[in-house]
Amino acid sequence: MDAHTREIIRVDRLATGGKGESMEAGKINKNVVDHCTASEYVPELLPQGVRKDLKPLNVLQPEGPSFKVQDNLLEWQNWRFRVSFNPREGAVLHDVRYGDRSVMYRLSFSEMTVPYSDARYPLVRKQAFDFGDGGAGTCANNLALGCDCLGVIKYFDAIVTDPEGKPEPAPNVICLHEQDEGIAWKHTNWRTGRAVVTRNRVLVVQFIITLANYEYIFAYKLDTMGGITVETRATGIVSVVSIDAGKTSDYGTVVSSGALAQNHQHIFAIHLDPAIDGHNNTVVIEDSLPVPMNKDTNPRGNYYEVKKTPVTTSSWHDADITKNRVVKIINPSKTNRISQRPIGYKFTPMPTQLLLADPESLQAQRALFAQHHIWVTKHKDGELYAAGRYTLQSTREHGGVADMVARKDDVENGDPVIWSIFGLTHNPRVEDWPVMPVEIHELKIRPCDFFEENPGIDLPSKRNETSVLVNNGGGQECCGTNGTNGVNGHTNGTNGHINHLG
Amino acid sequence: MDAHTREIIRVDRLATGGKGESMEAGKINKNVVDHCTASEYVPELLPQGVRKDLKPLNVLQPEGPSFKVQDNLLEWQNWRFRVSFNPREGAVLHDVRYGDRSVMYRLSFSEMTVPYSDARYPLVRKQAFDFGDGGAGTCANNLALGCDCLGVIKYFDAIVTDPEGKPEPAPNVICLHEQDEGIAWKHTNWRTGRAVVTRNRVLVVQFIITLANYEYIFAYKLDTMGGITVETRATGIVSVVSIDAGKTSDYGTVVSSGALAQNHQHIFAIHLDPAIDGHNNTVVIEDSLPVPMNKDTNPRGNYYEVKKTPVTTSSWHDADITKNRVVKIINPSKTNRISQRPIGYKFTPMPTQLLLADPESLQAQRALFAQHHIWVTKHKDGELYAAGRYTLQSTREHGGVADMVARKDDVENGDPVIWSIFGLTHNPRVEDWPVMPVEIHELKIRPCDFFEENPGIDLPSKRNETSVLVNNGGGQECCGTNGTNGVNGHTNGTNGHINHLG
Asked: Which residue ranges form the domains of chain B, and what is each CATH number?
C-alpha cells in the first residue's frame, strides 16, 4: 500500500510449502487454514481446565514496604534514584546513587530488534524494532494488583501520546515492589558451629509491553549488596505463518497444526550512562589469561594473568568466555583505601549469539548495533537509541551506535556511555505454544572495589518468624543450641581449602 | 608431615611480599599480622550494628505446600522423583518423571575444583576438590527453620560416616520448599484488552555445605513448565594469605589490611544421566549458523541454518556462543505428533571460562574434567565422579571423564551420560570481604518438543488476593473493567511484529 495515497499496489501471497519444496510452493493455497486447530490459553476456554493442585503462596509485608516514594524519587536500602517514563523507552532510571555517591547518571532499555529467518519473499522483510517502531512506552500494559507482582505494590502512571499526538493518561504502567531473592551470604564457623545467614532483598522497577503477539517484561532490580540487575523476560505468542498439512520446514517449527513458528532472534540493547563517583570515568576491559609454565613467573603452571586494558577511543568490543572478559567502569581519580585500586563497577558482557544475518543484508544494515556485544561511546545529549532515532522502514542504521563509534571520540577519563547488547536465538519448540514460557536474561552490574567491604554485611540475620515446618512428619525442631544450623563439624578440621594450603 | 609416622618433615614459610618483588620476598616475616585489622560479620560484633530499615517480607502458604512427601518420594505439579543423600555428593535426584514419563534417571552434583593462581611455593599446591576431598554430604549444614528458606519447609535427615567410619545422624541436611519465580507467561489480547498472567512456581531441593572457609548452596529447582534448573551459589569467606603492610600483588586483591585474597577459579561438574521416555537416548549438538547470501537458499541474507549433529562416540564438546550451541537429549524412537521431530530435553552449555592452568601443570592434570564444557560418556554403573573417585593428593585425574571418554564407546541411541562443566573465575573484589555475596550459576534444562504444548498453559491466572497497594498515594484501584491489565490498545494495531509481515 502507498501510505500517502492509501492505494493498494500489490498483494503478496505467502508460500505455505515445506522442506525440499521451492520457495514459491503453496502460494495462493486458499485451503491452508482448513487443517488448523484451535489453540486456547484463556482459562475458561482450556479443554482440560486449570490445574487445581497449586496452593496459594502469599507474600505479606505486615509493616509495609521498605521503600519511600516521593513523586518520582525512590529511596530504599541506601539507594536513591528517580524513575521516569517515556513513550519510546518505557521506564528509565536517573541519577542512581548509593548513599551520597553517584553510580549511574541514566540507565535504560534502548532498543530491541527481532529479525526472522524465513528466506521466502515477502517474509524476508520480517524484522521488528520494538522500541523504535512500536514504542515500548506506548505499548506498555496497565498493570493489575496481584497479577504481575506479589506483596506491597506501588504503581506509577504516565502520559503517552495517542495517534493524533494528543496526550493520553496511561495508568499503572510501572510497578514497584520488593522481592526476596534467597540467601545473600552465609557462613558457618566450623569451630563453633555458629551460622550467620542473611537474605538478599531486591527492589524491582518493572514494566511490561505487548507488541501485538509478543510480551516483554522489563525490570531493573536493585539489591541490598550494591548490585543492579537489568532483567528481560520474553513471553507472549510466537509469530507464525501457515504451512500445508503434514509438512515441516527448515524455516522453523510446526507448533500447531498448520502453524509454522519461524526461527528468529531477539537482540536487546541496554544503555548505561555511568557516573561512578562523578562523570570522569574510564571503561576497562579486564581479561583473565593463561600463562605458559616458565621458571621465572609460573614455575608450576598454576598462575594466570589478569590483564586490564583501558578503552581510550570510542569502539566496540565482544564478549569472550575464553578470557573471562569483564567490563569495568572505574573512576581513575578515586582509589579504594583497602585494595589501592580505582573504585568501580563491573559486568560480564552477556555471552549470547549476535545477529546471524549476512552483514550485507538489509536486516544487518538496519541493526548494526546487533553485531557486537559492547559499544563504548562518548556521552552526547540526546544519543539514547542504539539503532538510531528512526527505525521504521529504515534501510540502514542511522545515528546509532555504529555512527557514534565512528566519531573516534576520546573516552578515557571522560564521560563514557556503554551499550550492552545481548539476545536470544529463538528456534521455537512446541512448548512455546500457545503462549511461550518466559525466556529470562539478566545483566548483572556489580560494585568492584567501590566499597570498603561487602555493603550487605549489615543485613539482618534473624530468622523469619513465619516460616513453618510441613506437618506431614519429618523435619523435627531444628533450632536447639547444639549445632543449630551448624556443620557436621567433626570432619571440617580435615577438609576444605584451608587444608589445601600445604 | 608424614601422614603415617606423623613426623614433621619440613616447615614451608609463606612469602608475604608484593608486586615487583621476588617470589621469596617476606618469608619468615614474624610481624606480618601486626597490621591486620579485625573483620567481623557476626551481627553483635559489627561496629555499625545491623541495618534497621529492612521490613519483614513473609511467605505464607495458608493451605500448606503443594507437594506430597512419602519417605524419599516427592510429588509436585506432575513431577515425581526420589531424593537421596550421600556423604560424597549430598542430595541426588533419582527417577525424575513428569506424569508417567521418565525424564532423568539420576541428577547430581559430581565435583568441583578450586585451583588458586598464586605462583609462590607452596601456594602452587592450593587446589581443592570439594566433593572428592571434602565430601559434600559430609560437610552439609544442619539447616534451620526460617534461616535458609521461607514458607512451608520440609527437612530431610541423613546418615553420614564419622572419621572412624561409624554412622552418625545428620539432621536437616536437605530442605524442600516452594518458591514464586515471577511471571511464568503472559499475553494481553490487544483487540479485547483481556490479559492472562500466570506465575511460575518452583520446587526447591536444597543443601548447603561448608568447606572450612567457603559455603556452597546447591539446589535443584523443578518448575511448573517442565523445566529443571540446577543452581549453585558460592558464598562464605574467600581464602586469604598474609601480605606486608602497604603492598599489593599480582596474585590477588588486598581485601583487608594484611589479607591478600588470591585469584582462583571454581569449576563445577554436574552429572546428568537422562532417560527421555526411556534410556534409548541420543545427544545432539545443535548449532545456529550464518548462511552467506545466495540466490538459491538465502536471496536476502536473513536466513540462518540450524545444524544438528548427533554424538555417536563418547567425546567432549565445548560451549560456543557464536553458534548458539545447544545440547539436546532426544529419544530418536519417539516423535512429537505436532512438530514431527524426536521428543527431547535441551540445555545451553554454560558459557563460562574453563581451567586456566597450563595443561602440563599438576592442577590441570588433576582436573582434566575442567578443560571442556561437555563430556558425553556411556552409562556405566558406579561412574559418578567427574574427576575420578580418589582426588585427595592425586597427581592425575584417574577414572574421571577423560578416561571414560577415552573408551570411545558408542553412545548413539544408547544410554548416554552428560557432564556439564562450568564455573567462575574469581578475581576477588573488596566487596567479597569479610563474607562474599552469593555468586549464582544456573544450568537450565528445558523440554524441547517433549510435550505437545506449553505444559504450564493450565496454570491458574487468578490474581493473588493478599497483594496490596502501598498506602502512600499513587496506584489508584486498577482492576476496573475497561482495559484492566490491558494495553494502551490504540497503537497496537499499527505496531509490533504482525505489521512487520509485509
From this structure: 60-237+264-278+313-320+342-426+435-461 (2.70.98.20), 466-502 (no CATH)
